Amino acid sequence: MGGRMGGMGPRGFLTEEEKKNRPKVTKGLIIRILGYLKPYWKQFVLVFITILVAAVVGLLPSIITGKIVDEALVGKDLAMLIKLLILAFLTMTLSRVIGVAESYINSWISQRIIFDMRGQMYDHLQHMPHAFFTTEKQGDIITRMNTDISGVSSVISGTLSSIVSNVATVVTTLVALLTMSWQLALVGILVIPLLILPTRRVGETRYKLLSEGQEKRDEMNQLVNENLSVSGSLLIKLFTREEKELERFQKVNEEVTRNALKEARSGRWFSVVMGMFTQLGPLLIYFAGGLFIIKNWDPSLTVGTITATVSLINRLYRPVESLLNLQVDFTRSLALFSRIFDYFDREVSIKSPENGQKPEVANQDILFDHVAFSYLPEKPLLTDINFEVPGGKMVAIVGPSGSGKSTLVNLIPRLYDVQGGRVLLAGVDVRDFDLAWLRSQIGVVTQDTYLFNGTIRENLLYAKEDASPAEMEAACRAASIHEFIMAQPEGYDTVVGNRGLKLSGGEKQRISIARVILKDPKILILDEATSALDSISEAAIQEALEHLMKGRTSLVIAHRLSTILKADNILVVKDGVIAETGSHESLLDREGIYRELYETQFRKVLDYENG
Length: 611
Description:
Layout: H1 16-20, H2 27-37, H3 41-57, H4 60-73, H5 78-126, H6 130-135, H7 138-180, H8 182-190, H9 192-227, H10 230-238, H11 242-294, H12 303-324, H13 326-344, E1 366-373, E2 382-389, E3 394-398, H14 405-410, E4 420-425, E5 428-429, H15 435-440, E6 442-445, H16 456-461, H17 469-478, H18 482-486, H19 505-519, E7 523-527, H20 535-549, E8 553-557, H21 561-564, E9 569-574, E10 577-582, H22 584-590, H23 593-610
Parallel strand pairs: 3-8, 3-9, 6-7, 7-8
Antiparallel strand pairs: 1-2, 1-4, 4-5, 9-10
Helix pairs in contact: 3-5, 3-7, 4-5, 4-12, 5-7, 7-8, 7-12, 7-13, 8-11, 8-12, 9-11, 11-12, 17-19, 19-20
């Protein structure tokens, strides 16, 4: 019995953060949670039936023990002893089998609910606007997607089933106790407060020690992560900080060790104290039962009844303690669902309209009509953008860093939506397009190239699943990457590593350009697409890009003069508006913003390339 009570303590307390962020229990929240359980109500009924049967069957070994004492041992009946022992063994086996069945059904239900929620969450997050992923921490997204939803399993198979199981155990045990001897039952029940009160007091102390210990362990982990990383260890070596960092680590290490010892001491004394208290109930029952028999106050009371009562009382303590912690378990379960629902309730603000339009966009004009946009209301980024890109032409966009060039082009495929004005493509507001159709017509090559951790072939097929090997090769030749790929031992089946880290910046960018070539879009957006290339690679890729842009409407954000000079028109963005527009020569003659950019940025790059 002492070991069983060891689980009482820290888990029965809410952290300060949990108390502060305790979810508000509303009818709507409960109904919403039950909505996930509803499809599996038949399985839940089966679980509850097995729990009830298990609770009843679980009484039998204790009752049979009493009969063994009275009828077999006191009566010196060997045949009865064997019969009762076999019966006890069968009931214990049956109880275990029912437990396995209940556990399996429970696990099946919880895993199906997790499957439903995880699929719903993934689908929801896939459709969240780009702004969501730029503002939310990636760690939080992964935690909600994996840890929080996986935690639902413990709510279903743990908290919910535990409540039903504990109630069934307490009720059936009390009925059995009161039926055998209500006097001894009262003695055993009166001990329960003596167990609970000290448990909670000691539990608070242990919880405080656990919290302090966790804080120090977190601090130590932070030091290890920072100082033993590639960048951290390099910095320490360059500034010869080895001794100082060791002092910092040893200080935290000492505190972690000291807290661990306090926690261990507390845990041992807790076990000793609880072992004493948990034996008090049985001892009192033996005393009371002995007194009743010796004084002959209850002639019907037998030694077997006393033995069975002690066994049942031990069975009663644990579920009673669990039910006393019901508020904590319930609060944590609701908090888990509240975190998940918080993401589900985030609005999918950019979505395809019903019956979205699918006009032909090849060689069609793009018009920005009084466009306004801001990430923060108090800091407008684009205030009144007006310009037109004629179908089939190339427009270069230049401007100071942070002027909103990338944001401007991101409005076309609706990675963001305008907050004022409109963007028209083929005379249709992009917000009226079928979203999938709109994005399928646009090819984007960004400065920050992203490759999945797979093979080169898999990354290329992301653009066109049914592309033939000949099409892939043609795209890679056009992007001047085919020879590099074939020089690898695995060729197109070469694994690129996480985010393509096994490749250089130029190699990654050329693969991403090949991917867009394979997509064969009608509209091209190049966001400093050649920035990671050396001058030799850029010369090769520039020709491919020119071929790719031929006959396509193209917008190019560029910082290299060689790219800008090939544009049909140049737009200069500054202070939220198109400040200047024209050809390279005409803009230089104005001696305005473009001339300043040319002197400070473009000419330096040109001199470097020619140097």
